Amino acid sequence: MPEFDYDLFVIGAGSGGTRAARISASHGAKVAIAEEYRVGGTCVIRGCVPKKMLVYGAHFAEDLHEAERFGWDIKGASFNWQRLRDIVQTDVDRLEGLYGQTLDNNKVELFNERATITGANEVTLASGKKLSASKILVATGGWPFPAQCEGAEHALTSNEIFHLDECPKSIIIIGGGYIANEFAGIFHAFGADVTIANRSGVILRSYDQEIVGKLQDMSVAKGITYRLNAPLQKIEKNTDGTVTVHFQDEKPAQTADVIMVATGRYPNADNLGLENAGVARDKGGAIIVDDYNKTNVDSIYAVGDVTDRVQLTPVAIREGHAFADTVFDNNPRTVDYSNIPSAVFSSPPIAAVGMTEKEAREKYGDDVNVYRSDFRPMKNVVSGRQERGLYKMVTAGPDDKVVGLHMIGPESSEILQAAAVAVKAGLSKQDFDDTIALHPSMSEELVLLK
User: Fold this and answer.
1) How many CB atoms lie within 10 A of CB 261?
2) Residue where a domain stops, chosen among 263, 289, 320
3) Do 232 and 284 reside in the same domain of the chain?
4) What is the pLDDT of residues 177-187, one digit of tens each?
């Protein structure tokens, strides 16, 4: 008889957990995975995938408005929130099915119920069934912070925002990060009166602030309102269904159809029974792991947002794959967290890789050069839109090694992915200059920076 029921038991069937389960099974391990909600996790079910679909829907607002300048006469156009919402959820269902199919094809046993750790090698399902495993992997992701004030129950988070019965005529979004700015652009395009309220005076603090300033200026020009240095005091539900937000420091209250809280996410590690096995967590609740994703308990590992390293889906996938190769293929692998590209799917989008100008100057001092291209995309010239793009390159050292690229403009997230390869490879400004431009395109600005 085998010592354990499984070689690996994974708790959480999101991107990281699913990849770890699939690759471990391909290495010959007997694998099971438990998911209490829906297979696919945050990204597929209530995060980046459905959000990007809404972003695409929002793009049509400006495109239809400008179509006449490109020779198209479009009359009587209107927006139907319910139709887009339902189409998006239908595709979420499709993707969930594909995730489940992947697990099944790799002979990973799926338990559609909550699992908690009840020992170093034991999990207990919600049904009461106990199962043993040589290794346990926790991949339960993150969870949105609720409002930290009286009346928090009246505010939505990014979990619920996809399921609104109607598109709000007005919305207040609490927070200054990427989720807040993305949904601000989405709902403004759908016709809502949008306010971003942030407790501090800085938005998107991890991005280059020159680029962020461009986004803020363009958002204000569109009609999005920013209320900065405005911490929450309380939220009240009104008899007509609207919600009123009261701010601290005697700032005026504001009423809207919907209040959305987008103040970040925290590791989803509570009530998992980690204490039963003595698994260590940090002050923020994240599971502490080493470079190989192992906790302080030899049989228990963790990957993804539950470890609070880098909260990005592709990172969780890499961690899950590295875990599987390390533990079940005798091929120890770690993840390189340097120069990870990221994007804010705002309107227009921001994309970045590497150090901001501020970070580079803090590390390299005066040995830093900054190159820019401030341009008006050709499409905007034809349409009459006044918005300008900005590409910014940060270099360091005598050879002008590129240590950061920061962009705002149409399709910047699509353009940056290829450019991120160059930054990861350690190329110099001269390598960019030596590359012939692809004309006419926005991407050519990357090799024409001054």
Assistant:
1) 25
2) 263
3) no
4) 999 999 999 99
Contact 435, 427 (CB under 8 A): no
Catalytic residue among 27, 59, 321, 439: 439
Active site residue 439: yes
Cβ atoms < 10 Å from Cβ of 377: 19
Looking at 238, 263, 288, the residue that finishes a domain is 263
Which of 400, 390, 450 shows the shortest CA–CA distance to 422?
400
Q: Where are the beta strands (DSSP E) in 366-415?
A: 368-375, 389-396, 401-408
- Type of residue found at 196: I
Structural domain includes residue 121: yes
The pLDDT assigned to 37 comes to 92
- pLDDT tens digits, residue range 356-408? 999 999 999 999 999 999 999 999 999 999 999 999 999 999 999 999 999 99
pLDDT bucket at 83, cuts 50 / 70 / 90 = very high
Cα 311 to Cα 313: distance, rounded to the nearest angstrom: 7
DSSP result, 217-266: HHHHHHT-EEE-S--EEEEEE-TTS-EEEEESTTPPPEEESEEEE-S-EE
What pLDDT band is residue 1 in, cutting at 50, 70 and 90? Answer: low
Enter the tokens of residue 363: 């590390």
Question: What is the spatial distance between Cα 257 and Cα 243, in angstroms, rounded to a whole number?
Answer: 6
- Per residue in 366-380, pLDDT tens? 999 999 999 999 999
